[in-house]
Amino acid sequence: MRPLFCILLMALTGCVTIVTRAGGKRAPGADVHEAHGFIILNGERTAVKWSDGDSFDFESGPYDGQGTRLFGYNTLESYGPVHRWGDWTREELYTLTKGDADVCAAQEWECTTSGAPDAYGRVLVECPKLAIEMARQGRGLAYAIRGKPNRLVLDAMHQAQRARRGIWAKGVPKGLITALHSFAENTDGKYPTSSNRILDTRTGEAPLRKHTDYYQLCEEVCLRTEDDWSCMVYVPYELRYKNQPPCLIGE
Asked: Can you tell me the distance from the alpha carbon of 156 to that of 140, in angstroms, rounded to the nearest whole number?
């Protein structure tokens, strides 16, 4: 629980509170970094708690207590050290990614929502200027699972790539894994294949890549895009935030 002083101060000034704690919805030992701040949602000032660079929980307003998914861009996963490419180590990228929530909470962003949920029941929210800023800093990815991404976000990402900012400091792979699923997750046999999602860092498009491969828990999977590759540690969704395996909590 936040101290009463900080709650009052936030109400008066919009201060940002940075909280790092173990526990909550994650397994004991997990390093959880959260940042409290405000956004302007559909014209109303709304308190939020950022958990990473593209999602937050509402702390006031009509959606109080609900989680979100920001669309139009993407950031690296923050539930553990799972990404790797080029000369980066997983731990280096994870350390960099843990600062994403602080950047988001540092100012109040204009955002909109219709209240529609994504596939996981999270409220879909759009914050256009935040998407551009995260891409400009080399923290966010222009991201479109259908069609083309926002041109301004894509241009900002290309600018960061050329300047070697943020996650691009050690090079730019042509493809970057953003979603990894084992064929074992297809337990009902409804689909003939499983799918991963690979972002094309040149176009911002993230098409599905179908496969029939089985991945083991905590296995690092490396996938090629032309002559480049990127890697991601496989952890099924239900173990990312509760009962985390050792590869996520450093045991």
From this structure: 9
Q: Token digits for 190?
A: 């409804």
Give the number of C-alpha atoms closer than 13 A to the C-alpha of residue 230, restricted to the C-beta side.
26
CB 73, CB 141: distance < 8 Å: yes
Non-local (6+) Cβ contacts of 5 within 8 A are: none
Q: Which residues contact 176 (CB under 8 A, 6 or more apart)?
A: 83, 85, 141, 198, 199, 201, 230
| Interatomic CA distance for residues 154 and 149, integer angstroms | 7
Element (H, E) at 136: helix 128-136
Give dist(CA 108, CA 248) in Å, integer: 31
Q: What is the mean pLDDT of each run of 10 residues along the chain (251 residues)?
A: 35 35 36 85 98 95 96 94 97 95 97 92 96 98 95 98 98 96 81 88 96 96 96 95 89 53
Residue 85: C-alpha distances to residues 26, 72, 163, 197, 223 (Å)? 26, 23, 18, 16, 10
Please give the Cα distance from 204 to 155 (Å, whole number). Answer: 10
Burial bucket for residue 162 (CB in 10 Å: 0-12, 13-18, 19+): exposed
Q: What is the pTM of this model?
A: 0.84
What residues contact 231, with CB distance under 8 A and at least 6 apart? 83, 84, 85, 177, 220, 221, 222, 223
Q: CB-based contacts of 158: which residues, under 8 Å, 6+ apart?
A: none
- The dihedral through the CA atoms of 237, 242, 248, 251 has a sign that is negative
Q: How far is C-alpha 246 from the chain's CA centre?
A: 21
